[in-house]
Design goal:
homodimer, alpha+beta, HIT family, subunit A, 3-stranded mixed β-sheet, 6 helices
């Protein structure tokens, strides 16, 4: 058997690993050309000096005599905050024939990660990355505490294949008024594991990965970065806090510093190994009202966009991956560079 | 509220509709250039005359003195058929620490839809499309009856953004030895609906769409094509058979002809409206051993690849769509063309 199907212990979802698939013929495609970016772009609404193109900031973190991180409302929101909550209309459900819909109430914010158009989390000052993740936490708490919001997702789209519409480095926060089935299912699987084994499934994964080491990419005081056993895509990476915390908002100041450090290091390894690949990352966490629960364990998942989700993946909900996580982890471990040195590969 | 969140009645998954998102600024991207294809490509393993590049065919359907449709094993399979079933090793599960894996046993076949490199289901002879869907059914039954296979998915990837590696028109069939959670969940939702209301949720959707008409794209004797109420992507289309059938294999000869007709018509409308967009389609069906059940209802779902699944979609399992299905259905209804006339827009 040259192909193996692995189960993700935390979700019970499966991935097919078939290294043979990597060898299949392709029609010659266009070679992706990387744009060279300037530090300032006159038409970019997120650049230093163009602040009037965005709404009033919700949060500004300064540094070096100017702003370092700025959070604004998304001008093209997927969901919108309620001006008034009168009459409880924020929870309005509509029945249309046999169907159900909900008003698109929520928040959609942009975390502008730097005043400079051509900055990159993988290469900026580590203290600056700490400001970015601090902004994540501050906005996560603020938005979560508004009672119209139920689920808050912090995510980043880097590069065209990852769905970015603007090059300027930014992340997003999106809050919706309910918990979708996908998340509920993940929560229910970890609850079931806890009921069966009396331990957090994520803590068990962390301990196993630390002791086996073959999928371990990096470890610092507070975190491990792992290529998951059932990685859904090539170079899939999960950063887990070692301390059991169900909700991202539980991370303290020191833990945010540790997160910034490992996030930058791992993104730097990806940058140098794969020539600045497009990727998404997502903070996967319990809701704030589930803080302190025993079965969930927040983590940050990075999904490079090196392959395309096609018909089988859409139809089955499974993924096909052509490279084993052990190989990815080994390649990422080998890459060494000096963080915060632009162009600084060791 | 300019944004609305709709629930898919059959899966209980949600989609956020926000037409504002369509207006957001984009960095200027490269305009996609369509390749002009020849009818024969010397290096293409699927072209007429190059049959020796593929393994022995599993099925050949002839027409006009040559083959029309040819099914071969995928030379770069995601999963592989078992040579021998001795010792029941086909069902081998492996325990690795806390994790579970299964041997990649299954089938991975390619349905070559035409001998000509530049053919397109949207434009070939309707009788030829009937041969393609007949090949789907024949291979679906044959593969399903092999007791190592549990789930069989027939799908098509059209164009680079849909994950095609070869331009020559082809579909695929992939069989795996178990049912993944995503499918089990869909089955369980339709079972629950049946238990609650005593009717098939898909039959209820079909009746509702026929009577309201606002999301109806096309209807023939046996089928309706609908823009789903909670469409996950722009121009999402589902073709439902009107007769209740849980499994695709239940479709008889006349029903396959009807499927070919509506599939070609709908793909033709997409072709002319959106200039040959990339798309995936998937036959979503119960397994063959669930044929005749009362709660599931097979259908064919088309997902054009006009937008990119980004961090929020990955993290939440929900989709954000910037065009309402009522608009898509109206635009598709308006497009009229003469099937089987190359370049034949009315």
């Amino acid at each position: 058997m040259t192909s193996i199907i692995r189960q993700d212990l935390s979700t019970r979802d499966w991935t097919i690993f078939s290294e043979k698939r990597a060898a299949r013929p392709h029609d010659p495609g266009e070679k992706r050309k990387k744009k060279v970016l300037n530090s300032y772009e006159p038409g970019c609404p997120f650049c230093l000096g163009n602040e009037e193109s965005t709404p009033e900031p919700l949060l500004v973190i300064n540094g070096g005599g100017r702003w370092s991180v700025r959070v604004v409302k998304n001008k093209f929101p997927a969901v919108e905050s309620m001006g008034s909550l009168e009459g409880g209309s924020y929870k309005k459900r509509h029945i249309e024939g046999p169907y159900l819909s909900i008003d698109g109430v929520g928040e959609h914010e942009v975390i502008i990660e730097s005043p400079l158009h051509n900055d990159n989390i993988a290469k900026i000052d580590p203290d600056h990355v700490e400001k970015v993740v601090t902004a994540y936490k501050m906005r996560f708490i603020d938005v979560s505490n508004k009672f119209t919001n139920q689920l808050v997702i912090v995510f980043k789209n880097h590069g065209k294949r990852a769905g970015t519409s603007l090059d300027h480095p930014h992340s997003q926060l999106l809050a919706i008024p309910f918990v979708p089935g996908y998340i509920r299912n993940k929560m229910s699987e970890s609850q079931r594991y806890y009921d069966e084994f009396g331990t957090c499934v994520y803590c068990d994964i962390i301990n196993n990965e630390k002791s086996s080491g073959e999928r371990l990419i990096y470890e610092n005081e507070g975190y491990v970065a792992v290529a998951p056993y059932a990685s859904s895509v090539p170079y899939n990476i999960i950063i887990y806090p070692k301390r059991h915390m169900s909700c991202f908002a539980e991370a303290d100041k020191k833990e945010l510093k540790g997160l910034a450090g490992i996030l930058q290091l791992v993104l730097g390894k990806l940058y140098y190994l794969l020539d600045d690949p497009d990727y998404n990352f997502v903070i996967d966490t319990s809701t704030i009202d589930q803080s302190g629960n025993r079965h969930y364990h927040w983590h940050l998942e990075i999904m490079p966009r090196l392959s395309t989700r096609a018909g089988f993946e859409i139809g089955s909900g499974m993924n096909i991956n052509h490279i084993m996580p052990e190989t990815c982890a080994e390649n990422l471990r080998k890459i060494r560079f000096i963080p915060n040195k632009k162009g600084g590969k060791k």
